[in-house]
Structures are given as C-alpha cells and as structure tokens.
Amino acid sequence: MSDILFTTFGKIHGDSHKTKLAKRGILTVGYRRSSPSAGCLQATEAYLIALNVNNLERGIYHYRSHQHILTKLKDGIDPDLSQILCHQSFALDASFLIVLSSRFDKLWWKYPHSRAYRSALMDVGHLSQTFSLVATAHKLNTWLTGYFIDDLLNDLIKVDGHKEHSMFVLAGGHGPMDPLSPGVVKLLKATSP
Questions:
Q1: Which end of the chain is more exposed for a tag (fewer CB within 10 A), N or C?
Q2: Which stretches in the chain have pLDDT values below 50?
Q3: How far apart are the C-alpha atoms of 175 and 177, rounded to whole Å?
C-alpha cells in the first residue's frame, strides 16, 4: 500500500530538484509528483479507505503526500459504502478505496473559476491513470468511478464540499474482475430466457 501511495501521490521530485533549480536562479512553487499537475499546485488530495489492507487498521486516512505519511481520520467505517457509491459492486470486493478530492482553494489562487475546474479534472485524470498503472504492476485489480453521492462522501472524508470536494474514487484489491456482483449475475441468469 505504501508503494502505491508514494508512486502515485508522493513527492517524487522534491528538495534536490528544487536546490538545483535555485542554483540556476529559478524558484519553484512546490514539489512534483509522478503525474503532471496544473501550475505545479498539487491540488488533488488522496484519502485512503482501508477495508482489508495488511498491517493497516480498517479506517479512513488522509495521505500527506509531501511527507509520505497517513493521518488517521476515523477508526472503522460506519456508513454504508455501498450506498455512498450507489451500490456499485466493486465497493464490496475492494481491499481499499482512494478518494481523490480537489482543493479548489489552491486552484482559485492561480486560475479563474472555469479554468480551475478544468485543471482539477485533468489532475484527477492524470493521477487515476498513474494509479491504474502502479496498482496493476502490483498485480491488483482496479476499479474507478465518479458515480457517488457527493455529500455523503465529503462527510466521510471530512471535507467541506466547497473549498475541497470529492471528485473521483479509485479502488484496488484481489476481488473479481467482473463488474457485476455475484448477486446481479445470479439475477440475470434467473431472468434470461
């Protein structure tokens, strides 16, 4: 899990890169990840929902990418994830979910509103692709979705829904690759001629 978080969201190019540029008279705004980010603002946050991860208690965590640490937000997972994710079956089979949120307060500092939203979507897309590649390299199945109940997911990861808002959900694990749950497959077989 640590490798997946770091390779996808971690501070890949940091202090040594910054020092080299400073020697050449170039000051940088922040750090860089493995994926591009609009204005190098790194406005996408990652929240880990650990369901069945070795050596990690079940719960909700915020990944602090510049420090490569997890901060626990909540023990256990009380709400019905299936309801929050509109009963998508992958939520039941995943070992973990990663909620990507966008920090619009960071983006609005540099970009007008419409450009900030476009930048947020591109950042989430880049990070989702990187996650899919990294998790697949770790021999995990992946699922991605933008279909969820916004207010419930924002409450779960403790963001306000305005300055920071949930945008996309990534999931990984060893569950079945079939996008249909076993119950849905059984129902389809029972109702087909």
A1: C
A2: none
A3: 7
CATH, residue 123: 3.40.109.10
Predicted pLDDT at 27 = 57
Q: How many domains, in total, are found in the chain? A: 1
With vertex at residue 127, the alpha carbon angle to CA 69 and CA 110, rounded to the nearest 5 degrees, is 90
- Residues belonging to the chain: 193
The two structure tokens encoding residue 145:
């979705």
Q: What is the DSSP string of the chain?
A: -HHHHHHHHS--B-HHHHHHHHHTT---SS-B-SS--GGG---EEEEEEESSBTTB-SEEEEEETTTTEEEEEEES--S-HHHHTTT-THHHH-SEEEEEEEEHHHHHHHS-HHHHHHHHHHHHHHHHHHHHHHHHHTT-EEEEE--S-HHHHHHHHT--SSSEEEEEEEEEESS-S-SS-HHHHHHHHHH--
Instruction: Give the residue numbers spanning the domain of 106.
Output: 2-191
Report the distance separating Cα 64 and Cα 55, nearest Å: 19
pLDDT, position 144: 93
Neighbouring C-beta atoms of residue 125, cutoff 10 Å: 15
Q: How far apart are CA 129 and CA 131, in angstroms?
A: 5
